[in-house]
Design goal:
By secondary structure, this protein is an alpha/beta fold. The chain has one domain: 3-Layer(aba) Sandwich (Leucine Aminopeptidase, subunit E, domain 1). Helices cover 40% and strands 20% of the residues. A seven-stranded mixed sheet has the order 1-2-7-6-3-5-4, with helices on both faces. The longest helix has 18 residues. The protein binds adenosine-5'-diphosphate (ADP). Adenosine-5'-diphosphate (ADP) binds next to helix 1. The site of adenosine-5'-diphosphate (ADP) has 21 residues, from helix 1.
Length: 176
């Protein structure tokens, strides 16, 4: 499923983000950049120890912010590590923090001159964000960004399971 917004193709696919060949893939990291379960663990396993060595040098990343490392053994040249909010009822600035995680990742990609980027469903696993709302915010953040920034040509949302894909697809149709 795909649609063009301004100069950018936004795409939804079902798959494993570690296999993506976009310039960068985004990691749903934790603020200590310590690795962990979920997509974070999968990216470090597939990318090898060089990524964690760079994360240790960087040290930490506050929620809503993003940092960049090389892609180690991945096909993607870079990994952008961003930290989504842990969902705590929706009253702890979660909306703003989730939007910031997407937008700051995109800003970092643009700053590096990258043309394509793949996102997982940030905060939709262990961090327990309600998926409909997270999908809406993910897509809205990307669309808002590409309306005013034309450098990135492809944004791919890589959803790991059919249910998450279907929810993203439902929210995507509302925007097209
Ligand atoms: P968070 O802590 O931000 O919630 P998780 O890694 O627990 O991060 O989950 C975020 C999303 O990433 C979930 O939808 C999960 O199913 C998905 N996910 C897990 N492994 C992969 C993978 N290899 N590729 C893409 N998405 C993945």
């Amino acid at each position: 499923m795909q649609a063009t917004f301004n100069q950018t193709l936004i795409e939804l696919v079902l798959g494993d983000i570690t296999q993506e060949n976009t310039d960068a893939i985004v990691n749903a990291a934790n603020s200590c950049l310590a690795g962990g379960a979920g997509v974070d663990g999968a990216i470090h396993r597939a990318g090898g120890p060089a990524i964690m060595a760079e994360c240790r040098q960087i040290g930490a990343c506050p929620t809503g912010q993003a940092v960049i490392t090389t892609g180690g053994n991945l096909k993607a040249r870079y990994v952008i590590h961003t930290v989504g909010p842990i969902y705590r009822g929706g009253t702890h600035n979660e909306t703003h923090l989730l939007e910031s995680a997407y937008k700051n990742s995109l800003k970092l990609a643009r700053k590096k001159g990258l043309q394509s980027i793949a996102f997982p469903a940030i905060s939709c696993g262990i961090y327990a964000y309600p998926i409909h709302e997270a999908a809406h915010l993910a897509l809205k953040s990307c669309v808002e960004f590409v309306r005013v920034n034309t450098e990135i040509q492809l944004i791919r949302h890589v959803l790991f399971d059919q249910r998450t894909f279907d929810i993203f697809a439902h929210e995507f149709k509302k925007l097209t």
